[in-house]
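Pasting as-is:
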Amino acid sequence: MTLREMARVYRANNELTRARLRELRLALRSSQDEAERVQLKRRIADLTPIYREGRETAVLLERYYVRRRRRHGAD
């Protein structure tokens, strides 16, 4: 598997995480139960860095060779 292929996998998985975050935020807006709201906020807080790191990793994988060539002056 190449780094670009790995980046595609990260992006696909990240879309699932993003969709789940949307669902949780919608549920949070409509929830009236305080205990449920606390759980939803906790879950959102847990998933947010996972989403961010997945996005960052995909970008790093996609650009790995481009950055490497530039760093060594072969552009």
